[in-house]
């Protein structure tokens, strides 16, 4: 009596006689309750001699190899493992990647759309994703930096070209994670051949310039307070805007900030110097929980106020909150030499 507990094979090799005396090999596939037949375009010839028999053995080995592949695909499908699609084009993958980023609410969609258009112009319309190699990446870099011109017939800046290149690189990294390709070929490109942005000269405020700002009235005092507070503790504008009463802690006569930085999502525990404390709003300890410490205007309007204020102080620099973060006040934080 046959053991009925033995599960049936999902893929079986079968043959069908055809008119010329040969046998066509096909797969009998049972998947998800549906039976389908896949004809392999492999044929067994009449075994009239040793050569014919040897050829039939080779043909059957090929058929069994395909059967094994189909069996693995069905097993992976049942296990929820995503199959690698070998035939997807580069542009189709880029579009899929863009759509996925859009679902996640990312802000790079416009940049990715432009990258897709540039790849199409460069010659990537019919190129398969798995055909993208280091040479393709090098050619795309050359296209971005030496060939491509905007609608105004001007080359794009190195920063813009790098943004487009990074869009491609990020999509290829995602393809590696998804199992579409084994590795990102752009990682093989040597640093000397990659797009480089000239290092910009960072503006910072000297101690004398900070003294000038302190001594100069500002049309919006809350903007002056927030900016000078940033000078003495190095916070980004996003963190300044997000500061609440509960972010200020007092313990054993010391005051410190306890925040999660907006950009890096990392915690920051920062003791506040006497100079920093001077620029917190008056009576801040009485603020309600959740109330912002600095009630600032929009960044555009705030930057205009900073410009007016710095000009009035006789400072010929482009003053922003980044300038405050790049200031060179390390020793004054320790000695508190700046006076209001």
* Helix residue percentage: 40-55%
Beta content:
5-15%
The helix-strand sequence is EEEHHHHHHHHEEEHHHH
Q: Report low-confidence residues grouped into runs of 5 or more.
A: 1-6, 328-340
Shape category = elongated
User: Structural class, please?
Assistant: alpha+beta
| Biggest sheet strand line-up | 1-2-3
For the termini, the CA-CA separation is 100 Å
Radius of gyration: 33 Å
DSSP helical segment count: 12
Architecture overview:
The model is unreliable at 1-6 and 328-340 (pLDDT under 50). β4 (248-251) and β5 (254-260) form a beta hairpin. The strands form two sheets. Strands 1-2-3 form a three-stranded antiparallel sheet, covered by helices on one side. The protein has a three-stranded antiparallel sheet with strand order 4-5-6, with no helix packed on it. α4 runs antiparallel to α5 (158-177). It is built from twelve helices and six strands. Helix content is 44%, strand content 13%. It has helices at 50-79, 90-103, 109-122, 134-147, 158-177, 207-215, 221-233, 237-242, 274-278, 299-312, 321-325, 330-335; strands spanning 11-17, 23-31, 34-44, 248-251, 254-260, 267-271. With 340 residues, it is an alpha+beta fold.
